[in-house]
Amino acid sequence: MSRNDYIFTSESVSEGHPDKVCDRISDAVLDAFLAEEPTARVACETFATSGLVVIGGEVGLSDQERLKDYMGRIGQIARDCIRDIGYEQEKFHWNTCHVLNFLHEQSAHIWQGVGGNEGAGDQGIMFGFATNETPELMPAPIQYSHKILRRLADARKSGAEPTLRPDAKSQLSVRYENGKPVEVTSIVLSTQHESEDQSSDDIRAIVEPYIREVLPSDWITDRTEWWVNPTGTFVIGGPDGDAGLTGRKIIVDTYGGAAPHGGGAFSGKDPTKVDRSAAYAARYLAKNVVAAGLAEKCTIQLSYAIGIAKPLSIYVDTYGTGADDAAIEQAIPKVMDLSPRGIREHLGLNRPIYARTSAYGHFGREPDADGGFSWERTDLVDALTKAV
Fold this sequence. Notes:
Structural class: alpha+beta
Shape: flat
Helix content: 25-40%
């Protein structure tokens, strides 16, 4: 039996975190190729350290001459990402860091296995999750951890807080009562800043109003513990302070540990890779199950084999909060084609919509007019309700 009274903690990291810099570059490369050709194949990995960015992996376009042309643009794509994030440090500056491009043409064997856009790009298991504890149908600790960092990034980029720098981490411990979030027991915020003369108290004075603006007002109490830059000075940050890699923040990217994760990262992968597209589909389905009132929370697992179009299994767990799980499992393939092609077409994934997903979570975001975050729509509610 699940517990109703407990404390749960999740963390988020900002777009300037070294791993997120790499996710951003990998997804920007993906967007560039998809803008050129919607069926482009991309599996792009990025490594960043002091003064250096290394990009590798495989890409594919139908025209090899255009592929060669695009290879020459990779360095500028990386620099544009770094500049937008805000890095102009002596040892990590968008205009002076070295960018090495080792992307190569996609393996013909992988292309054959995927079967001309029909089969899954790899084997694997993917999970989706939704819960009614926030308006976005996301777990509260991760959702509000993201919101804090997005708000601080907005303040930094607008010039309202010029002493803040891009690298930051947040962490919230949330107390649940009768299964619902009611209180924040601790707030951890570490943010890079301009000067060694700024103390932890100085940084708290800057960030606290934004944190209070984001969190529900009654969640912060006299008992809430605040830990702002608890180690003191945080001037050296980003890839100059710690190396970064694409795909190292998969729990930050998803549900903050409140739900299972299949293990596959998202960034830099085109939507034939079910690590990404099927995880989006599973979230889409779980969110619609909860939005339809069929459950208060829902986990959905999908599994695939490389080159095989249909999912090998569909598993649903509503934790005893709603309709019969087996009935939902039977309804899901009636309302959505879960082949890799079906997912891409249903959610419109063959578009350059991925760089925006690289920080502050792939889930719990508002759908964009151009198709970004299409997996956050709740347009399957009626179909699911009728099918269950």
